[in-house]
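Posting this for the archive.
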Amino acid sequence: MRKELDICLQKDVTTFLYESLPLCVVLGQPRLYEWFLQHYIEMYLVDAKKGERYNFYALRYAETTSYLQYSKIKEALNFNQVEAAVVNSKVDIVTFLKAQVDCGVYAIVFLNEWAVPHKQSYHKTHWYHESLVYGYDDEKGTLCCVSFDQRRNFTSFEVDYGDFREGFQMICNDPSDIAAYQRYLYLLKPQDIEYAFDLKRFAHQLDNLLRGRMDRIDRYNLDLLDLSTPREDWTYSFGLSLLDRFADILQTKYRDGADISYLDFHILQESRRLMHKRLSYLHAHYLPGGEMEELAGRYGKLADAYDVIRNLFLKLNRLQRTGGGRQRGEEYLQRILTLLQEAGQTETELLTAVRFLVNEAVKARYAA
């Protein structure tokens, strides 16, 4: 017997699995597509600077502040978590997951990827990563999963029941320093709701982006973060204003010879690609007219510019890892900083114009 629940192997948000995996469930439900477009708009940067050095920083969407906690995705998904060791002590994990699928429930499960053939760490290193389980095939003896594969592609694949059991068992038996959130299974089921895009809310979200601020409730949730640095050292930046702070972090860390994560550049590019998709959708469904079409097209070119920035960083990163020329590295860095500044100015101009059109549409709707 084979059974699969509906998923969408989305490529819009893939930087962090704790965001991308639940979205495969959400976008498997066409009625929740506009919920998705209403979210993953605002971002924040939190950092801890002591003197001239940054001890810590993180660039994230406002949707998730820690592992599926205080997350707006609960508007779209029923969410429960159970301790992996408790499940392991009472039932076979494959039997448990098959029963969840039969009830229409998806599961996010952490595995020790040393035991999973589809993973880059297979029989090399003990690495703990999550996979979304959305189906099973008794004839082949496999579970249907989504995660990163051995080539670091975000994709679907099937894991043998025995390999899955071994990877899960290694998590349950590991007494080491794996994070507390990795010791849980996360059970997800789509909410029984219909969602329509709210233009008035979008205008407010654009206002937050342009003014570099965040709503009070979202700020409160950020203060619940459990970071490894003293809270009094934290500094938050929001919206488009975080680009200036990020540029300073980039310059400082390069000067200090410290590692800079490729993921930061990926999430900047990813978020702009998603905004371009959002603006194009709004033009097609809510804001017809040549002006909006032109703005969406120009925003697409801005997203292309973030591709260029990301590729420049990869070249810079390669120079750092191979001990390449310092002068060449400085040239790459200055080019990245210049392009970030130009992109920020262009984005401010474009989103200001979009906000005006959205506000006009809202006024017209309420006046009708």
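DSSP finds eleven helices and ten strands in the chain. The longest strand covers residues 128-137.
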